[in-house]
Amino acid sequence: MAIRLDQSKEGTRVDSSESRRSSRIRIQVPVFLRGSDASGAEFIELTKTLNISATGACITAVHLLRPDQTVHLTIPAPSPAASSLIPSETPPIVAKVRRLDFLGEIRLFGLEFLHPLE
Fold this sequence. Notes:
This protein is mainly β and 118 residues long. 0% of the residues lie in helices and 47% in strands.
């Protein structure tokens, strides 16, 4: 499925004729966002989702991400009390940036997961 990006005054948006493959859940989940900025310098940022589905998420971010840029999301987990069987974070979720919007000073990014969540 091809997703067309259009530049507009409000930002970069996904073509409205595209339909969602899975429904979104409005939930704020803390995530570590890893990627590289426009100068190529790698960064890690603690941010959050605004909504999530099996195929993507909407996140906020301080760093400016580029359309089609690949990023990695990791969900931190609380420190285990006494068990090494519980991982300290999830395996990275690889995603592509598909949308950029602004809500005042806040940057919102629509991400598409390269592999849907199960």
